[in-house]
Amino acid sequence: MPEQTLYERLGGEESIEAVVDRFYGHVMADDLVNGYFEDVDMQRQIAHQTQFISAVTGGPVEYSGEDMRAAHEGMGINEEEFNAIARHLNTALKEFEVPEAEREDVLDEIASYQGAIVEA
Ligand code: HEM
Q1: What does each of the 120 residues of the chain score in pLDDT, given as a tens digit?
Q2: Residue minimizing CA distance to atom 3 of ligand 1
Q3: Does the CB atom of residue 37 touch ligand 1 within 6 A?
Q4: What is the DSSP letter of 40?
Q5: Which atom, in ligand 1's list, is nearest to the CA of 36?
Q6: CA of 79 to the centre of ligand 1 (A)
Q7: pTM, whole model, 2 decimals?
Q8: Structural domains of the chain ordered from first start
Q9: DSSP per residue, 59-77
Q10: How many angstroms separate the Cα of 119 from the Cα of each of 49, 67, 68, 80?
Q11: 85 CB less than 6 Å from ligand 1?
Q12: Ligand 1 center to residue 2 CA distance, Å?
């Protein structure tokens, strides 16, 4: 049997979108980070984040947003804020009962962008 991509193990784009939607629900309830998203079109944000996670987990999806460095440049995001965002994603993955192996693989993938996103 051919090996499944992480995208497939997560259940594809619809499952990823459901997790991302929940993830931003947690982000917007967190005063440490929600200020960053005050003027952001969240529908577009959810769509781009869904595309991004789908693409980096091996899905047949084209990400149409900016690269991670350009998207976050000048925001002054620090490590504590980065960790808070990663924790909200972890919580959303748990709430959708994504198995631990897949959850860790997603978080490892996201952690690999820390250097491009954190600048403070
Ligand atoms: C944890 C890893 C992260 C990933 C994978 C990620 C991913 C993304 C993606 C895909 C976009 C869309 C870019 C576009 O539409 O061109 C974006 C935008 C954005 N991100 Fe992140 N992000 C991460 C962490 C963070 C953190 C820690 C913060 C702030 C605390 C943050 C704040 C924002 C904001 C405010 C935007 C909207 C920019 C705009 O549309 O004006 N992100 N991010």
Answers
A1: 678 999 999 999 999 999 999 999 999 999 999 999 999 999 999 999 999 999 999 999 999 999 999 999 999 999 999 999 999 999 999 999 999 999 999 999 999 999 999 998
A2: 110
A3: yes
A4: S
A5: 35
A6: 14
A7: 0.95
A8: 6-117 (1.10.490.10)
A9: -S----S--HHHHHTTS--
A10: 20, 15, 12, 11
A11: yes
A12: 33
Nearest CA to ligand 1 atom 37: 40
Tokens encoding 44: 């577009």
- Report d(CA 95, CA 68) in Å as an integer: 26
Nearest CA to ligand 1 atom 18: 71
52: Cβ below 6 Å to ligand 1?
A: yes
* Position 7, amino acid: Y
Rg (alpha carbons) of the chain, rounded to whole number: 14
